[in-house]
Amino acid sequence: MTKPSDTVAPHPIDVVVPKQASGTRLDRFLADHLAQFSRSRLQQLIRSGAITLNAKSVRPRDVVRTGDTIRIAEPAVERSNLRSENIPLEVLFEDDDLIVLNKPAGLVVHPGAGHQEHTLVNALLGHCRSLSAIGGEERPGIVHRLDKDTSGCIVVAKNDETHRALSTQFADRTVNKVYLALVAGTLRKTAGSIDANIGRHPVHRQRMSVNRTRGRAARTDYNVVATADGISLVECQLHSGRTHQIRVHLHHIGHPVLGDKLYGRKTVSGFARQMLHAWKLGFQHPKIGEWKQFRAPVPEDFRAAMPDVKLA
Predict the structure, then answer these.
(1) Does 149 qualify as catalytic in the annotation?
(2) Domain count, the chain
């Protein structure tokens, strides 16, 4: 297995543009088809020349056509300057290929602007002998992310093969992702599906919003577990993985997540963080082929808000 600090160039990835994607922007096409890369990472690779279109340099806004060949040739991962830290981790499962954790609210997943230390990655560097290098120097092992203030299940890859296999499952939407959310108000229907495209907010660039014409397809199924004192506990199942998807969809139907400073400012009072918990996570183990299902215990702040609701 590969240390994240080793200098290793990942194998190039070749993608042929299918007919149905013709006319799409390059960066958007890649973001839709390569779940292992964030959109910002793809744009960085394009700017550095690591991504080519029909063996020619490209720009993020360039349009792809049927039959075009895109090559992603990531450079060797530079020796990491990230510091390992002895941060306690709640491990739900671990073997030689991956680790599943219950991430606490308040913990940033990976280093970035304003967070160069005290992140989940720093904790992983102190806990794991190896992590995959696909995510780059600042995101070793990170297959998917949770917001800083979202608690619950997250899976991390210890090698590149596992990372790619898990990323494919996320991209193919075969991963089972179930969240719990405490929201404002009483929902009109006790169960339903929110099928609404999500894109960048046209004015507030830090936010996402429902955009029926230019957004990317997103679907969230929900079921109301309990309602009391103007608060509803809602179980949400994701069928896509758009940025802030549950927060945006619940805000869109008029029931923002409690404590959400970005989408539910009027509901922040009384809650130290956004009340969103990645409750269940299921996927096929890449090496042994077994279906694995994990459940992160419901955090105490959820139980305190609705003490009479019994959840395993």
Answers:
(1) no
(2) 2
